[in-house]
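pasting input
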Amino acid sequence: MALRNIVAAAALLALGIVYGYLATQLPVRSLPNLPGPAFFPYLIAIVVVALSLGLLVQGVRGYRRGPLDLNLSERAPAIVALLLFAAYLAALPRLGFLLASIPFAGGMIWLYGGRNKLFLVAAAVGLPLFLSLLFREVLRIPLPHGSWSVLGG
Amino acid sequence: MNPDILHGLAQASLPTSLLSTAVGALLGLVVGMIPGMTISSGIIIVLPLTFVLDPTISIALLLGLYVGGMMGGSFSAILLNIPGTPSASATLVDGHPMAARGEAGKALGVSITAGFAGGMFSFLCLYLIAPSLAEIALRFRAPDLFSLVFFGLTVICGFAARSVVKGLLSAAIGLLIVTVGQDPMMGTARFTFGNTDMLGGIHFLTALIGLFAIPQLIDNLRPGLTGRGSAQPQARFGSLLPRLAELKRMVRPVSIGSLTGAFLGILPGVGGPIAAFISYDYTRKTSRNPEDYGKGALEGVAAPESANNAVTGGALIPMMTLGIPGDPVTAILIGALLVHGLAPGPLLFMERADFAYTVIFSFFWANVFNLIIALAGLRLLVKLLALPKAALMPAIAIFCVIGSYALRNSFFDVQVMFAFGLLGLAMRWIGMPVVPLLLALVLGGQLEEHLRVALTASKGDISVFFTSPFSLLFLCLSAVSIVWPFVSAHRRRRAQSGLEKE
């Protein structure tokens, strides 16, 4: 955990410094000595930097030499799921809800251990179809429409 | 009688409201019961509905889910030795041994009745305390409100995190994210990088969906958790309702649990798990037969279950009177009300007292329906423990997209939701709690506004925060909540080193 703390502290320290710098670029629109739009961000930048330094000190004090345990092989399904999710989000604006959700649902069902082909196909098609009908037609809640919506998205 | 109270009762008792409460309670029991699903998952499923439903019906649905979810967690704790929700962790200590020796029905019955008693006690607290507290809160001025919100945030950081530094950092990141968009006082665009989507800022419901749902989806991918649901328990239940002698034995633990839960529920960030363990521990320590605990003592189920359920009403008190959420669920309730133009806080009791009482009485009905559904439908409900994750988890993933898109019909919100999911995973990797970040997203806007209004009114004089008694009190409490975890950690280390020397 100590090494992770060091990595996190370094990233947050950089974030705090960049954020603080960006706050200095905000326009000054207030009376003298009164808080303007940059006032609160300044305070937060100071707090983030100070706390990151605190975390860095904690990390350095507790550090024992050793590799950063990423455990990639154990995390492979998680990485695949996240990539699948990212691809789904990228496809949504083009394909729309229904067309994009079917392969996504299929992929997720497979990842969660659904190996029965009939179940996989039925659930992958049925779930988005049911949700699309429920939200669009029954509840009148808009779902993402794709630019290729003529295809049924 | 106050006409607002009568109107609130009538609204909460409308057939549509009652049906909504019952559906919420049923869904809550189901999501609470299934290991790997949480109350937040249930909320994510119904969230898009609340955007189009009447606020009375929406709040009834969400309250039913909240109350049901708290109780549902104990079913799997008792039957499978797996707590459905973190709050049910204390219940399994005695609940599962009871089930193992063939008293599953009794354990579940005790859990349901104790939970109901805790819930009703917290309803009474909510009904009696909330209006008076709102009246006091109306006297607060900008410095008091700033200090109050600041106190709320620091308490969360102290309780929610093992490391106070990480808790505070989590809240600071939340505050940093709040500043994206238009400045609340002058409308200046901040940190938008010319992107018009970012002008409206980051909606905390979008953030919440990502922060809670995506790490949960990933968690359920761990080896051994995929495939079919948990094995269906083969327990014979027998009678669920406790006998008179058992009810008498429950009085003391339920009283302790209800008081502890309702009180701790009021404190932001404390939540069910802490209340359940404290009440369990206190009941055991003050019992005549402490050696029975851990081996299937009825009192060991009653105390944490009443505490769990009493937390819900307690958490609604600061939410409704001060606009400060105690946990992610009350944060969502605030969001659901804000979508309908209703801002929880002291003004709610002044401007829309009828609606405030509708919420209070919906909470009452949520407890009643919870009891009825749990007792009547338990045998059917536990069959859902066998539901395959392969169907549930993809559905939740799709609900995440629907919920975040439906909020403002924007793809940007969907992308933000995913980005927050990645942030949630990164925070989990470094052991940083996400609850302070979420609550900072809810409270950050108010914090900045009250700070700037107070400083503008005092012409930049910061002594205004120390001259008002309310503000001074909240700042002192904030200091205690920041320093206390360090002091208690230092004490623990000293005690530990003392033990090692001995």
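fyi The mean pLDDT of chain A is 86.
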